[in-house]
Amino acid sequence: MRKTPLILGLALLAVLGLTSTTFAYMSSYSTGGFGMMGGYGMMGGYGYTNNNDHVISSNQTDDIMNKSLENATVDKTNNVISFNQPDVNLTLLGGPEYADGKFVAGGLVNPTIKVKKGSKVTLNFINEDEGMPHGIEVIASPPPYSYMTMMQGPLYPGAYVPVIPQAENERYPNASATFVASQSGTYYYICQVPGHAAKGMYGELIIQ
């Protein structure tokens, strides 16, 4: 009988898309703070440690963001970033101070991202929020979002960045993922931490 909770737990983790790579990443951080079954439930275990493999400085963040936008058009008037190359390097910041609880790219808050159909998209996520862990998941469902929207799973295999720890002392955890935008349409990138998308941490991804 004791095996039942373990089996259910593993099945739920599979639904969330947590792979062995994710666990390897998570293990580089302490398990304080939220705990595996407390606070954020399965999203827990995100205490911060100074792991230089996955933590960068504010200067590095600026360089990474600028490089990711070299082949993009940033339309500040309409809050849109467009990529016209087949290889897309998209960097998103999570919860910087001036946009708490939102995504930021190129100075735009929750921008609409446009990519070409068939593009190879690399999502690079940098968490600048010193009060909260965040992640990214690309989904098909439009807002409004429920508390547990992340349970539906990503649109494409690889179209998510597992939840990473909160920032501390201007040291920012980061992680990346890659997927192929193989079908046209309007989709959405959200933070999969329960409740974050419901509070406005999402944006449009248009594949055309």
Structural account:
The chain is 15% helix and 33% strand. The radius of gyration is 16 Å and the shape is globular. By secondary structure, the chain is α+β, with helices and mostly antiparallel strands. A hairpin with a 2-residue loop joins strand 5 and strand 6.
* Overall pLDDT confidence: 80
Secondary-structure class: alpha+beta
How many strand elements?
13
The stretches of 5 or more residues where confidence is low (pLDDT under 50) are: 1-52
| SSE ordering | HHEHEEEEEEEEEEEE
What is the number of independent domains?
Answer: 1
Number of helices: 3
The biggest sheet amounts to: 7 strands, mixed
CATH topology: Immunoglobulin-like
Q: Kindly report how far apart the N and C termini lie.
A: 51 Å
- CATH top level label: Mainly Beta
Described by the principal axes of the CA atoms, the overall outline is: globular
- CATH H level: which superfamily? Cupredoxins -  blue copper proteins
In angstroms, what is the radius of gyration?
A: 16 Å
Measured as a percent range, the helix fraction is: 10-25%
